Amino acid sequence: MNGILRLAYKLLVNDRTKFAALIVGITFAVFLMVQMLSMFAGILGRSSATVLNIGASMWVMDPGVQTVQSSIGMPDYVLDAVRSIQGVAFAVPFYSGGALVKLADGTYQSVTVLGLDDTSLFGRPPLVAGQIEDLYAENAFVVLKDPEYRKLQNPGIGTEFQINDHRGVVVGLARAASAGLFGIPTLYTTYSRVLQYLPTPRFTISYVLVEPKSPADVAHIKQDVEALGYLALTQEEFIDRISTFYKYQTGVGTNILIMTVMSFLVGLSVSAQTFYTFVLENLERFGALKAIGTRSRDLILMILFQAAFTALTGYGLGVGLCALLITAAKLRLPSYASTITYWNLAAAFVMVLVIAAVSSYMGVRKVLRVEPFDIFRS
Amino acid sequence: MPAAAVTATQVVKWFGEGEARTTALRGVNLDAYFGEMLYIVGPSGSGKTTLLSVVSGILRPNEGGVVVDGCDIWRLGTDKLADFRLRKIGFVFQDFHLFPRLTTAENVAIPLILRRTHWDDAMAQAIKYLEVVGLHARADVPPVKLSGGEQQRVAIARAIAGQPDILIMDEPTASLDGDTGHAILGFVREHLLTEQRCILIVTHDSRIYEFATRILRMEDGRLMSVEKGRAA
């Protein structure tokens, strides 16, 4: 390490109380920022769980749909019309709705029921137990083995339950790519059985799942669907639409943004103030260094290094602490929606850099203004 | 005749403006030579410290010029002047200004580190300078655990670590008891004063006058009289 930086490092860390206060301040701020952002990322990720689990390339829906759960039924002719669009390899109906399951002990549990196309079972999940063709058996359902699975009292193959006063039998357990947001279990069955078991409005198709022949067909499929008065979105566009809804139309995004900004401001004020105090306490010695012959750029380098070192150490500890807490929380609460993403880390990193920049700016200003002559006068 | 280490010509320095203006130096002329230990003495507020600051390149005068070892220092830019101080001048401050969070050796090594000397080499040299002042056994101790006299010696070791041609000491006995101050100045005179070095000391402690090769008295911003040695 460069001698001047090593000197700055020793001046910083050897003042253990001040250094600890700085590290705790930044660690706490980073922890809060990453925690808030991770919670938001977790919520957004889970809000699109069905879209990810089904895995269709394109989704056709009513233009009023904002989330998978808020589907608006479409008439059957839409399915036929979409199938006739040039460039569509295949299109299948898909149902998404809610129901009540009566469990063996007589209690009721809300569930999400997804109805897959009878012919192709397109969108079927990978099974961890049972055979997918058993879904064609009488009263057959596949249960998604996600964190909500235990709310159905951990059913196995052959477990029976009641759904809307119909008999249901578990024929398979499926693995989920992503768990849902609303904390309720998910059942898969065939599209026709959904219509048979659940009360349905006049229009029954929630979504039409489309596979284009090639990516080049996506644009004109969207145009042709729009001409029908409906909306066709790619998987990514649908996920974005859902995210936008939660960010801007539910208050979730705004509240979490406010909490994140508050965490940033708390971190900024605590760290900047502590660092400034650290500089003030060493001001005479910085003045002595100037008198001895330290160039201004070396003093700036020392202060920037001290601020950056503190910020990066606090950042690492904050992220580590957050990861530890989220992991521990998920062990106790499997449905805890919190995910640390690279974007979260990058956002927190930028905020930490701002904290370091503001702290060092205040310190640098003070040190550059100190007159070595004052050292003599003292 | 020894070579001039410091030449100050018609130096004027004032602080503040308008009615609040206070003139600290009123056309001071000073010559200090290599091989001498020059004291500047006088009452508080007479301008001693201001003069020391001006001739060491820390405080820019309003008028006049200062030549140190042949260099007109106030014509240098800020960074070059800082480099000049680092290479040519060693400072011993009144309150020492040692870093309490660093070890004694690290404090002494600071001028060497600022000169981009490798850390390990700087530490090795610092130990050598601590040997000179008799404190090498306390190299790993922070200065706060040393007595006032020991801290003064550490400050001296730091000042000479860069092997400066000019050594400037501001009230070197102000924080010390009489015996310690006497011992320190005796040490400076005996070990640090060479033909290639000029030592400038500001003091009003008459108990250490005996170590000076020359004494100049300042009063009211002017150098008034020569109290010992050759004429200025």
Oligomer: heterodimer
Main β-sheet description of chain A: 6 strands, mixed, barrel
Strand order of the largest sheet of chain B: 6-7-8-3-9-10
Order of helix and strand elements from N to C terminus of chain A: HHHEHEEEEEEEHEHEHHHHHH
Principal-axes geometry of chain B comes out as: globular
Q: Given the structure, what is the number of helices of chain B? A: 6
The low-confidence runs of chain B, each spanning 5 or more residues with pLDDT under 50, are: none
Structural class of chain A: alpha+beta
**Which value, in Å, is the CA radius of gyration of chain A?**
29 Å
Report the biggest beta sheet of chain B as strand number plus sense, adding barrel if it closes: 6 strands, mixed
* Bulk shape of chain A: elongated
| Helical run tally of chain A | 12
Tell me which protein chains meet in the greatest interface and how many residues each side has.
A-B, 31 and 34 residues
Proportion in β-strands of chain A: 15-25%
Could you tell me the mean pLDDT of chain A?
88
Please report which band the strand proportion of chain B falls in: under 5%, 5-15%, 15-25%, 25-35%, 35-45% or over 45%.
25-35%
Total strand count of chain B, please?
A: 10
How much helix is in the residues of chain B?
A: 25-40%
Proportion of helical residues of chain A: 40-55%
Average per-residue pLDDT of chain B, rounded, comes to 89
Jot down its keywords.
heterodimer, A: 378 residues, alpha+beta, 6-stranded mixed β-barrel, 53% helix, 17% strand, B: alpha/beta, 4-stranded antiparallel beta sheet, 10 strands
Set down the secondary structure blueprint.
The complex is a heterodimer of chains A (378) and B (232).
Chain A (H helix, E strand, L loop, with lengths): L2 H11 L2 H32 L1 H6 L3 E4 L14 H8 L4 E15 L5 E9 L10 E4 L9 E5 L15 E4 L2 E9 L11 E5 H7 L9 E6 L5 H10 L3 E4 H14 L3 H30 L1 H10 L3 H37 L9 H28 L2 H6 L1
Parallel strand pairs in A: 3-8, 5-7
Antiparallel strand pairs in A: 1-9, 1-10, 2-3, 2-6, 2-9, 4-7, 5-8, 6-7
Chain B lengths: L3 E12 L6 E12 L3 E5 L6 H8 L7 E6 L2 E2 L5 H11 E4 L11 H11 L4 H14 L15 H14 L4 E5 L7 H15 L5 E6 L10 E6 L2 E7 L4
